[in-house]
Amino acid sequence: MDQLHLMSVFVAVAEAESFAAAARRLGMSPAAITRAVAALEKRLAVKLFDRTTRYVRATEAGQRYLEDARRIIAEVNDADEAVKGINAAPRGHLAVTAPVLFGKIFILPGIVEYLQRYPDMEVSALFVDRVVNLLEEGLDVGVRIGKLPDSSMKAVRVGAVRRVLCASPAYLKKHGALKTPAELPKHSIIAAIGVSPTSEWKFRQDAKSISVRVKPRFSTNSNDAAIEAARGGFGITRLLSYQIAPHVTSGRLKIILAEFEPAPMPIHVLHREGRYASAKIRAFVDLIASRLRKDPALK
Known about the structure:
5-stranded mixed sheet; D-Maltodextrin-Binding Protein, domain 2; about 40% helix; 3 domains; alpha/beta; elongated; Arc Repressor Mutant, subunit A; 9 helices
């Protein structure tokens, strides 16, 4: 049998954890699925699945093979798209992910522009405050804030953000301005867990890293909630510069201790790296990268 066909069957079974479900997904009979998996295991001389009457699970060797098989199938699909017409207008479906607030402020307007520009495209967006594996979750493009680990993904740097301390003018007037981070434990602290997951807040002083232990009076996994609490005058919070930019501009929040901020964190747009970039991915990355690089909040 054709090797690519066998890989496609293997991936379908591994993802569905079922021969019957894979058969329905591929429009094949269960017997044909079983023969294809057996042929692949024979060709590779390795067992790819542990099978019982109750479950189908990829073996350790099968898990390693699954990632390579997905990558190879994706590259073949990209090559097919390139051959069909590198200058053709994007068409089909694109899956995008970004942090929640960043996605709402910066990526959503780009998605709307993209859809208006390319009427044959559909986009689904996953806005979550966690690191998403693009390959495992079937996503095409992702936005990352922070240093990148080693990866097979292609990364395009588009800007940077800072971790900043802020409070309302009313709070600072009542409790006094801070001169150093060491004064933080004396103040009412609002912790945005996604930005500062621990009670050790790090700063930079004279090119050296310093840490201050804080005891939050209010902790939340919602950046919006932390912003509202700070705007309401409850205390000092630590967020990313882009998250509070509109509130700083309006005067509702004020950045403090800017001279002690850690080094800025880079922003990258990621997508699968390969010899071919599909028209839909290439057009979206180019559009988003251009928009983000022009935004003064991300300098």
